[in-house]
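Researcher: Here's a chain I'd like modeled. Treat it as a single chain, no partners, no ligands.
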Amino acid sequence: MWKQKVNLKHFIGHTLYNKEDLPFPIKDIPDVFTQFKKKTERDAIVKPCFLTPDAISFVAVQDWGILPELNELVVNEELDGLTQDSEFKGGEEAALNHLHDFLHTGEGMALANASLKKNEIVSKLSPWLALGCLSPREVYWKMKEAEANYGLKPYFNQIVLGLLWRDYYRFMFKKYRNTFFKPEGFKQELTLVPLADSDLLHLWKTGNTGHLLVDAMMQELNTIGYINNAARQLVATYLVYELKVNWVMGAAYFEEKLIDYCPASNWGNWATVAGVGNDQRLTSSFDFQKQLKVVDPKGNYAQAARA
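Model: Modeled as a single isolated chain. Structure tokens:
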């Protein structure tokens, strides 16, 4: 590009807040999420979206090649379980359509004067965010616009909160680098569970543990590459605290399977569940029985999967 005298312009768009706009340098970012959230929301601004270009000049290429088939990209893997006819279609247009549908649901709720519990608010925007098809800032400003129109602040705030968590883990990885990938994480004195494949791990991966809800969620993950955040925390808690399997094995499996895989969010969340994350206030938050009551209090999820 330099030889062609072409300038490369870099636009920051993978986080909600630019790191230069944070009220603290990376090395001083609070480890406690609530402190990070409070100071950032108070002292930093979310910049407006970049304007859409009127036109784009492409270089002339005689042969762009062809997109490979899935079986050409994924070798030595069982592909039968993968659902290709999924609700998750790639590209910006599909992302914006999905965002519109989510906002329209909020409009319908406002008209019906309905409400949802926090764990029932799932946008499913993360696959497009992870791949850069959708900007977190675009989501933020669309949510704020819808909030002003419909008045459903708790509904839209849950999605904005998710964007903040996403930023938090990305900035934590900038601060601490690969500490999140280590089994001991931020706890130096820790009795480590062996890092090894096992029968229990295999049963968890394949959705054959015998626990109906956990199995249903894992089978859903294996089929479509997605489960919501509450489900991820539940199956992670089950693996770590009920099956006593090393959390790194679970995080690595999610890395393989998630269609919205993001290194910082995935490994940061798993370390937090396992009690080796950088915010030690969250280490006692993961009780499997309590999570069951929150995620599926009436057993509807598990019953639907069994049917």
